[in-house]
Request: fold
Amino acid sequence: MVQENGVPVGMKHYPAEFKADAIALYRSRPGATIKAVAGDLGVNTETLRNWIRTADGRRPGAHTAPPAVARTNSEDIQAELAAARKRVRELEEECDILRKAARYFATETRW
Reply:
């Protein structure tokens, strides 16, 4: 693959906030698969898997369990979880709006 500025051409770059939101979305959906969440977000499955591994303190591509994490205050965890759930709801609403807009414009451009 031809490289441009040290990055293979064709690779997408995602903002750190998008990566964090994608990880939060995956973790907020019990029973959801990485493949399903990646498909919803329009990212490659392995890309999302690597983001999750990195967030867990593991090397992308590693298949070992994440390191033990120090326990924090239960109230801190609950507050963080509530904030994450609120952000997920906001992102889901934004996605719905974008889907509706895409559908609208797709029908407007047909002959």
